[in-house]
Design the sequence.
């Protein structure tokens, strides 16, 4: 019994930092609608800054607590500068594009931290005066953890007072409800946004800095923190601070109890299971209110016109030129091109539901992975011929997408996105832990294509044919009545419903079809690499890559994802080869694209050369 | 005038002879080797690793390279991702035309590149991935591995573990291949040495995200006599700090793979654990000639002390050069034959790449941790020769697929 009590206290202590990070994320999203992917980086910067600031003055109680507060303030100021210099310029561009900017920011911050603090983990000092432990029910319990347990509710109270008892808080809440109305009433939105972004960032950094006696500063913290924070925000309900607190407690406690009950393997994924259950049963999160849609949503989107003859001809010529490429070279260019085709199909399949369907997926890699594993397992374990295994890849992924999609299409917006992420993480953890079948974290090797595809040219041509064919099919579907129904469901669900479109059904079919296309990409990916592992196919980073490709190319054109995939893959390959700090260079390049072409590369081309036929 | 003329003549001859001697090396293209690693994803190990191989490369070239040609290494970041790694390897082979490839850190990347090497019939010298599978279950003709594997490092700790005759053991490990293999090997080997042993608790923690407080409490609740851990890096530091605060280690023996590596021991500073049995690298104490020479050269070149990664990087390039010299050619098949039974002098002493399973006999240092001058150190350590901690040849043959 006493050990259960101690584990509950452990859960409370972990929940505090989690709450602070999530509260910051929730605030920022509520007001600015920015899905702040860089929030984990701000958390990481908080730990690093606290480490340096405390170290600079020698460890005393003053420098310790002062350093923590100063770290939070410093990161807040940094975030304000980022907001003014970068994000402020792109509030008016289509939703989600800010995600691309904040993703680029994570790349830059990570290399900046590597350059400034070095690669080695930095273990911070213990809190002066709170180094020891106290006896609770016969077990020693760290004093500092008791302080953390107290800090969580205290800061929640302070935030509540700030938001509910001050004029500034009233403005923030008003902007969360209806930012256009706040602007109409003469409030300077720009500074409100800056202040909220800085406050959210400072909270994330504070959450990080407070962990300094418990967590060494290391460069992998950003990704670890961001997925946890998203989960807490969504489980609690977007924009709800008490909800975030409750969710942090729930997840902290469940994890501690899993460890106590000898189910430690479950901690890899338990928060995502919790999130999936909550979203399925209570789509707006524990304490969230049903979400108001933004008035400006969709207004920026141009109507799609049927595919013109000119752009069809352009596409055919492009494919023919690509098909002739092996005549010019059989070298590395083909290898890179195979990767580009695979990712172009992958990105196009995401765009299929994201653009015309209006369903953002943060977990699209699940279907790439299901396709890859479907094909790989049938080839390696069941001894199927390669051609049959490749044929099965889209079917395996479609089956998974049909199952997951059935739940996802019942939600919308960020909730839908987070449910896709939850399912993707659950699929990833199954592949990661089911050693006897999937090969666990190592994955499967020996997934090579059949003999006639050993030649690079043959594999290249097959990949080109299948990817181009699948992309063409998707484009056909979008200009067929099905595509119109899909867009109707996105732009006006009520009216679509009124004219007899079963919106959910159409979305579900689209989700499944996109899954199948991603699965084909996954099958091709597996055979072009000869091996698959959970991290190379199903990890969050793959899903993020796909989103980045779509956004980089431009959400509102059909050619966007293809161009985005080509640009991203080529850039990464080229930059990584030529510089050590390639992540920062890649991030900087993406930031430049974001600022110069806020509609993506294809969007900019289209605006410049005026062909409107392509718009989706 | 005459004198000046003669001098000019002599110096002219000297120049001509010198350039004639230099001709073969200068006229020929350097030998290009490919190196790929997850430099950004695992920077704390791989930055010293890079310094190690750069030093070795300079030394090899100063000594004339191999086959009368300079060696050049084309190094790439594989992003810690097996899929990217295969593309990078392909790029090294196709565009850079390297003679063979080496490197990699995480197990899944190592295995993917090993299978790629088998497919392309090109030598792959896996420097660091510790997975046993790369030479056993998934071993292939073209892949050789340098560092002591998970199994070997675990086996090095088992004699001490068995000697203590502790009955109740608790285990904690990072939940991926390395931790799982270490745990499996430890349980198997200890059970063999001490049949009455009981494993009372097992905690598999997500890599890089250990919930240290809860894990420490759960281990303490199991009331073990001893603990076996394969945690490393940030997870290890968190585990040590929580364990110290909560008194987990009081009166208990703790064994931890790799915890003596400076990469993982040094960040803990004066909080490094006392009296743990670990494998590691006590660079400050090794007095063999080979190591002293390496240490001096390394400190002179980088103005920093070496980590375990430095030795691995250094030995990788030394081994690569030795293989080329022995093969006398850059032909893949000849290189593979040369690698079998290749003897290499490393800072840890001589090692052999076994023809049996392509595993090198590079060992590790085994000892107990302590704190000296507010820094973690290894005490009363000894070198464990890798050759002595491998299974019997017959067992290895059973594990490894036929060529």
Sequence:
């Amino acid at each position: 019994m006493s050990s259960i009590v101690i584990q509950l206290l452990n859960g409370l202590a972990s929940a505090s930092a989690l709450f602070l990070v999530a509260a910051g994320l929730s605030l920022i999203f509520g007001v600015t609608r920015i899905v702040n992917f860089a929030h984990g980086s701000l958390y990481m910067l908080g730990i690093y800054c606290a480490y340096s600031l405390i170290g600079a003055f020698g460890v005393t109680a003053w420098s310790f607590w002062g350093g923590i507060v100063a770290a939070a303030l410093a990161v807040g100021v940094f975030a304000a500068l980022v907001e003014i210099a970068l994000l402020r310029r792109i509030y008016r561009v289509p939703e989600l594009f800010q995600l691309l900017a904040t993703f680029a920011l994570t790349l830059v911050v990570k290399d900046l931290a590597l350059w400034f603090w070095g690669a080695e983990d930095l273990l911070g000092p213990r809190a002066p005066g709170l180094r020891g432990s106290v006896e609770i029910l016969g077990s020693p319990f760290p004093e500092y953890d008791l302080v953390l347990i107290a800090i969580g509710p205290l800061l929640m109270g302070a935030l509540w007072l700030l938001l509910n008892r001050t004029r500034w808080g009233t403005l923030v809440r008003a902007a969360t409800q209806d930012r256009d109305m706040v602007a109409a009433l003469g409030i300077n939105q720009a500074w409100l946004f800056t202040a909220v972004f800085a406050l959210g960032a400072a909270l994330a950094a504070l959450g990080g800095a407070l962990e300094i006696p418990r967590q060494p500063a290391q460069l992998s913290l950003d990704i670890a923190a961001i997925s946890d924070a998203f989960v807490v925000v969504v489980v609690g309900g977007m924009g709800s601070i008490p909800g975030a607190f409750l969710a942090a407690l729930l997840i902290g406690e469940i994890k501690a109890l899993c460890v106590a009950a000898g189910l430690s393997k479950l901690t890899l994924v338990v928060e995502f299971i919790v999130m999936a259950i909550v979203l399925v049963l209570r789509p707006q999160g524990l304490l969230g209110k049903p979400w108001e849609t933004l008035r400006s949503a969709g207004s920026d989107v141009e109507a799609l016109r049927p595919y013109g003859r000119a752009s069809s001809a352009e596409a055919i010529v492009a494919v023919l030129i690509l098909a002739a490429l092996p005549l010019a070279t059989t070298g590395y260019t083909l290898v890179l091109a195979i990767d580009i085709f695979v990712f172009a199909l992958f990105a196009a399949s995401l765009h299929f539901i994201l653009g015309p369907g209006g369903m953002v997926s943060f977990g699209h890699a699940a279907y790439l992975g299901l396709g890859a594993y479907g094909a790989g397992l049938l080839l390696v374990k069941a001894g199927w011929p390669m051609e049959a295994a490749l044929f099965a890849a889209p079917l395996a992924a479609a089956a998974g997408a049909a199952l997951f999609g059935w739940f996802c299409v019942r939600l919308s917006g960020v909730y839908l996105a987070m449910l896709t992420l939850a399912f993707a993480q659950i699929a990833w953890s199954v592949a990661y832990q089911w050693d006897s079948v999937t090969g666990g974290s190592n994955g499967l090797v020996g997934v090579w294509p059949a003999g006639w595809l050993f030649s690079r040219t043959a594999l290249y041509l097959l990949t080109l044919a299948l990817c181009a064919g699948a992309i063409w099919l998707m484009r056909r579907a979008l200009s067929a009545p099905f595509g119109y129904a899909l867009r109707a469901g996105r732009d006006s669900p009520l009216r679509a419903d009124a004219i007899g479109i079963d919106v959910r059904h159409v979305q579900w079919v689209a989700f499944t079809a996109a899954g199948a296309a991603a699965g084909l990409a996954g099958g091709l990916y597996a055979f072009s690499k000869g091996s698959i592992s959970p991290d190379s196919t199903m990890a969050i980073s793959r899903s993020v890559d796909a989103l980045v490709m779509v956004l980089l190319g431009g959400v509102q054109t059909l050619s966007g994802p293809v161009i985005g995939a080509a640009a991203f893959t080529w850039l990464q390959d080229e930059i990584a080869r030529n510089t050590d700090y390639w992540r920062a260079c890649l991030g900087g390049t993406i930031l430049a694209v974001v600022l110069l072409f806020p509609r993506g590369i294809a969007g900019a081309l289209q605006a410049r050369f005026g062909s409107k036929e392509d718009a989706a | 005038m005459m004198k000046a003329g003669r001098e000019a003549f002599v110096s002219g001859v000297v120049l001509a002879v010198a350039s004639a001697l230099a001709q073969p090396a200068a006229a020929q293209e350097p030998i290009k080797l490919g190196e790929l690693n997850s430099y950004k994803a695992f920077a704390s190990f791989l930055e010293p690793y890079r310094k190690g191989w750069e030093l070795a490369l300079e030394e090899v070239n100063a000594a004339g390279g191999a086959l009368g040609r300079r060696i050049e290494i084309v190094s790439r970041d594989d992003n810690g991702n097996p899929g990217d790694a295969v593309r990078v390897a392909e790029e090294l082979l196709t565009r850079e035309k390297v003679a063979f490839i080496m490197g990699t850190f995480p197990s899944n990347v190592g295995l993917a590149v090993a299978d790629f090497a088998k497919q392309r019939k090109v030598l792959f010298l896996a420097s660091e991935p510790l997975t046993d599978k790369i030479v056993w279950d998934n071993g292939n003709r073209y892949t050789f591995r340098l560092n002591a594997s998970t199994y070997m490092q675990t086996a090095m700790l088992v004699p001490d573990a068995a000697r203590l005759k502790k009955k109740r053991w608790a285990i904690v490990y990072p939940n991926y291949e390395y931790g799982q293999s270490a745990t499996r090997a430890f349980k198997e080997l200890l059970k063999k040495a001490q049949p009455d042993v009981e494993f009372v608790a097992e905690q598999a923690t997500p890599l890089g995200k250990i919930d240290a407080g809860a894990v420490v409490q759960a281990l303490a609740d199991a009331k073990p006599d001893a603990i076996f851990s394969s945690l490393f890096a940030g997870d290890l530091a968190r585990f040590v700090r929580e364990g110290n605060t909560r008194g987990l280690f009081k009166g208990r023996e703790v064994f931890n793979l790799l915890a003596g590596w400076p990469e993982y021991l040094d960040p803990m500073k004066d909080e490094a654990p006392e009296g743990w049995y670990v494998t590691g690298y006590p660079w400050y104490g090794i007095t063999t000639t080979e190591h002293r020479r390496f240490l001096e050269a390394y400190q002179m070149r980088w103005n920093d002390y070496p980590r375990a990664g430095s030795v691995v990087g250094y030995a990788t390039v030394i081994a690569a050069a030795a293989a080329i010299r022995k093969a006398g050619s850059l032909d893949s098949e000849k290189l593979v034959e040369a690698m079998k039974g290749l003897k290499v002098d490393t800072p840890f002493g001589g090692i052999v790449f076994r023809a049996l399973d392509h595993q090198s006999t590079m060992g590790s240092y085994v000892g107990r941790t302590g704190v000296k001058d507010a820094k973690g150190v290894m005490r009363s350590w000894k070198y464990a020769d890798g050759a002595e901690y491998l299974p019997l040849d017959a067992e290895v043959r059973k594990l490894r697929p036929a060529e």
Notes: Chain B has 13 helices and 14 strands. Chain B touches chain A through 68 residues (CB under 8 Å). Confidence is low (pLDDT under 50) at residues 1-5, 12-26 of chain B.
